[in-house]
């Protein structure tokens, strides 16, 4: 898997969060994940299936960032990661993957998306179990950190 | 979504764990999940995409059960949920979904599987964000509890 495959997810995420929540994410350096573990408090995950390959995408937020995004979108800040927050994380997961799907489709790389799943739990970790390389991309912002991770089989 | 859709996952899981780890799981009562939250320590998740629908499947284990399965499969008990355990949970997720895919395919219900993702973290919770009903099925055993959850859009 080429690091270039992360870029459509990266630009889609930056676009979604600046549009929906007036939050500017600053991308860090993408890296091939080996035994590094990304840790967060609420994550959205989605499976992807296409004719050339299959894979998975995840986005993980610090609690602080997830709550701030909710506040900026809805004008009210939840006390904790409740159902409204997990709905929002599921929706962001769908939107970011959908945006990346459009960008990758223009390059002839097609996939269909499964439905998103949201995980919440203080300091959980996520491991993508595809056979391909795992690329992780950290983001920082004024309200906390996030990271995305993408993995496809056989690229 | 009909509760009948859970049965292929149920029988596939029972079959996989009795074959691979000599562990008999006793199914509880399946239920439509509303705001009930299933909680566990290590989970395998996978997306499914088919011509009729798309959805997601998850299986969540207590740490005790996950470590016991490893012990029965490999003869050695890990101290904690390490990479070998998450690999095993990813593999079980693939095998259970693959078994259910075969059973459902015989009934004319086809889907392709994405690649599995494994989550670890004490007491995390999982929410499937499809538009369909979420069906949860608890299991008990001599070594701890597990539960599976399945959700498809538009059934």
Automatic annotation (TrEMBL), chains A, B:
Listed CDD domains: CheX
Domain (Chemotaxis phosphatase CheX-like): residue spans on this chain: 42-140
GO biological process assignments: chemotaxis
SUPFAM superfamilies per UniProt: CheC-like
Alphabetical keyword list: Chemotaxis
Keyword Lipid metabolism: no
Domain of life according to the entry: Bacteria
InterPro entries with a match to the protein in the record: CheC-like_sf (IPR028976), CheX-like (IPR038756), CheX-like_dom (IPR028051)
The name this protein goes by in its record: Chemotaxis protein CheX
């Amino acid at each position: 898997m080429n690091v270039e495959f992360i870029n459509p997810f990266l630009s889609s995420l930056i676009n979604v969060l600046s549009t929906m929540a007036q939050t500017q994410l600053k991308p860090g350096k993408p890296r091939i994940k080996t035994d590094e573990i990304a840790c967060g408090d609420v994550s959205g995950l989605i499976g992807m299936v296409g004719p050339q390959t299959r894979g998975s995408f995840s986005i993980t937020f610090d609690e602080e960032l997830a709550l701030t995004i909710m506040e900026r979108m809805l004008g009210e800040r939840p006390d904790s990661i409740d159902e409204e927050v997990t709905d929002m994380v599921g929706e962001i997961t769908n939107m970011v993957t959908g945006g990346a799907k459009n960008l990758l489709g223009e390059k002839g790389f097609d996939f269909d998306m499964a439905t998103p799943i949201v995980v919440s739990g203080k300091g959980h970790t996520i491991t993508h179990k595809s056979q391909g390389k795992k690329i992780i991309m950290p983001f920082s912002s004024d309200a906390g950190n996030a990271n995305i991770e993408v993995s496809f089989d056989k690229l």
